[in-house]
Structure formats: structure tokens, C-alpha cells
Design a protein that fits this description.
Mean pLDDT: 81
Structural class: alpha+beta
Oligomer: single chain
Number of helices: 4
Helix content: 25-40%
Strand order of the largest sheet: 3-2-5-6
Distance between the termini: 66 Å
């Protein structure tokens, strides 16, 4: 019984980044332009009208294109989830690479999307 409790405790310690910090895969995209924009994300393609916003979920980079041909394509880039990585390393070093490889990597919580992004093209 003690071995089972110890194993459960090890997995809880290993997932400190996921449990303590979690991830941010939601981005509120605001269209600050005169035309409709298309946002391509993991969850699909979305159209956002001018001067409006939409919350979009994606664990990978998102691509924004405008219906106006002179506007360039923009990419919303994900960044490393530093706080989760620090929590993985500090308590995680006790049990090796388990937290980084199994829990946070599988749950895709090593990276996060920005909370907000504003697209502009006039």
C-alpha cells in the first residue's frame, strides 16, 4: 500500500507544472482593421469582423490573414511556459525526467499562447 501511495505522490510531484500553472491555450484576438480577418488555428478557421474580438483555442501557432490583399499574413507564436518548466525541474529533479517527458509534454503544457493579440491593417 505504501508503494502505491508513493507512486501516486511521485506522479503528483511530477506534474507540478501542469497542476500549479497549467497552460494558456486561449487567445483573445481583436480585429483592429477595416476588413474581415481569417484566423487558422488547431480548432478550425474563424472569421472575425472589423472592430470585434473572438477567443480562440489553439495549442500551436495561429495564422491570421486579411481579406484585403495588401495586408500581410501574421502569425501568433506560442512561447515556452517558463513557470511550468521551473516547477517541473525543481520538484521534478527528485524523480528524473518524468515530469518533462510524460506529463507536461503529453498534455502540451510546455508552451503557452499569448492571452490577447490585436491585428491591425488599414
Amino acid at each position: 500500500m505504501k508503494k502505491i501511495i508513493g507512486l501516486i505522490f511521485a506522479f503528483v510531484l511530477a506534474s507540478c507544472g501542469t497542476i500549479g500553472i497549467g497552460s494558456n491555450h486561449n487567445t483573445n484576438i481583436y480585429n483592429n482593421s477595416d476588413n474581415v480577418i481569417n484566423v487558422k488555428a488547431d480548432s478550425g478557421v474563424y472569421k472575425i469582423k472589423p472592430d470585434s474580438s473572438m477567443e480562440i483555442t489553439s495549442s500551436n501557432d495561429m495564422t491570421i490573414t486579411s481579406s484585403k490583399k495588401s495586408c500581410s499574413e501574421k502569425t501568433v507564436v506560442r512561447t515556452p511556459n517558463t513557470a511550468a518548466m521551473v516547477l517541473d525541474v525543481f520538484p521534478g529533479f527528485l524523480i528524473g525526467a518524468l515530469p518533462l517527458l510524460l506529463i507536461d509534454a503529453v498534455s502540451n503544457n510546455l508552451y503557452r499562447m499569448p492571452e490577447t493579440y490585436s491585428y491591425s491593417c488599414m
